[in-house]
Amino acid sequence: AQSVAQPEDQVNVAEGNPLTVKCTYSVSGNPYLFWYVQYPNRGLQFLLKYITGDNLVKGSYGFEAEFNKSQTSFHLKKPSALVSDSALYFCAVRDPDRGSTLGRLYFGRGTQLTVWP
Amino acid sequence: DTEVTQTPKHLVMGMTNKKSLKCEQHMGHRAMYWYKQKAKKPPELMFVYSYEKLSINESVPSRFSPECPNSSLLNLHLHALQPEDSALYLCASSQTGQGFTGELFFGEGSRLTVL
User: Fold this and answer.
1) What's the confidence (pLDDT) of residue A97?
2) Which of B56, B103, B111 lies closest to A34 in CB terms?
3) In terms of Cα–Cα distance, which of A90, A87, A78, A89 is closest to A19?
4) Tens-digit pLDDT profile for residues B14-37
5) Do residues B56 and A102 lie in contact, with contact meaning Cβ atoms separated by under 8 Å?
């Protein structure tokens, strides 16, 4: 079965420090992986995706993610956190049914990131 | 600014009411989605429309009735809801076809409270 796991419900980091939000995946084939962010009372915003190619993916707002096939991980990172990065972050994997052209995503349970000033 | 627009942003309804949530996108996407999200939980897929046809129904109760009048519009008709249906309802759209890699574009959501 396809799934993603976010092992941390909460990540706290001081402003200016690097941040990492963890995600591991389990899929039957090559994964399509995504990170979305959700600010309070808002919809989800796309941050970045890994489809193929370079293992380091750069996305919006200075975020990047590193795909590691041997560890089945896709951790979200940022070199210097901002207070405005405080939000709920979701890792997601696309349905590996390659015959499907629809974007059925399986989301992790989410990680609340809090950046302290 | 999101290019997927949802109305209303907030809705309070009684268990005997009939109401509708609306979603509109102008990105030329041919797939549209309804998700339900409880507080601090991941979104749960409800329905998927592809080319205005219902493609996926995740065993959603019949008190939720989706409708896709055209490629830009998606409605969710609500009737005889229960208090446990209170949640944030998110609409999303995406491309379809070969080359599509799965990115969804979400609206801001409609916050539903059932009394």
Assistant:
1) 61
2) B103
3) A78
4) 988 899 999 999 999 999 999 999
5) yes
Give the Cα separation of B3 and B23 in Å (integer): 10
What pLDDT is stored for residue A99 in this prediction? Answer: 54
Q: In this structure, what token pair is assigned to residue A35? A: 């990170």
Q: Do B98 and A42 touch (CB under 8 A)?
A: no
pLDDT of B50-92, one tens digit each?
999 999 899 999 999 999 999 999 999 999 999 999 999 999 9
Cα separations (Å) of B53 from A36, B77, B88? 27, 16, 24
* Most A-contacting residue of B23, B34, B45 (CB-CB within 10 A), to test interface: B45
Q: Locate the chain B residue with the closest alpha carbon to A50.
A: B101
Token look-up 């959700």 returns A38
- Average pLDDT of the segment spanning A27-31: 81
| B41 touches A at CB < 8 Å | yes
Of A43, A101, A109, the CB nearest to B106: A43
Among partner residues A49, A90, A95, which is closest to B103 by beta-carbon distance? A49
pLDDT at B2 over 70: no
Q: How far apart are the C-alpha atoms of B55 and B50, rounded to whole Å?
A: 6
Supply the pLDDT for residue A98.
52
What is d(CA A60, CA A15) in angstroms, rounded to the nearest whole number? 18
Judge whether residue A96 has pLDDT over 90. no
C-alpha distances out from residue A101 to A78, A94, B66, B68, Å = 31, 10, 20, 18
